[in-house]
Task: inverse folding
């Protein structure tokens, strides 16, 4: 997830209507396609959250007093950037439509030909 900035650079953050048949084209089932997209969106959300917390941890002041609150302009800019990122579902849907998501079934049996 280290390259989230470049991956979502030209991505439209607005939600728009999608062709259901187009989503189901690769799997043959809309529910499977939505499950794949939602699983990827959850992973993106966790990765972005971990990345944001890692960057903000650099600015954390560990003290026992609550008297002073320090505002750091860099910290504010980092937070604003992550607020402007497209929704993880939008990112995952674009990745799915571009064929960038690999998926497999847990219970898939391997059929061997004799």
Result:
């Amino acid at each position: 997830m280290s390259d989230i900035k470049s991956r979502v650079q030209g991505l439209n953050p607005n939600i728009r209507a999608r062709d259901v048949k187009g989503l189901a084209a690769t799997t043959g089932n809309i529910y499977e396609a939505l499950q794949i997209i939602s699983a990827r969106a959850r992973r993106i959300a966790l990765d972005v959250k971990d990345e944001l917390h890692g960057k903000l941890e650099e600015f954390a002041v560990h003290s026992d007093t609550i008297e002073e609150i320090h505002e750091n302009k860099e910290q504010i800019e980092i937070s604003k950037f992550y607020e402007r990122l497209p929704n993880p579902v939008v990112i995952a849907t674009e990745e799915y439509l571009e064929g960038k998501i690999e998926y497999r079934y847990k219970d898939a049996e391997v059929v061997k030909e004799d």
About this structure: Residues 4-97 form one domain. The mean pLDDT is 81. The two ends are 43 Å apart (CA to CA).
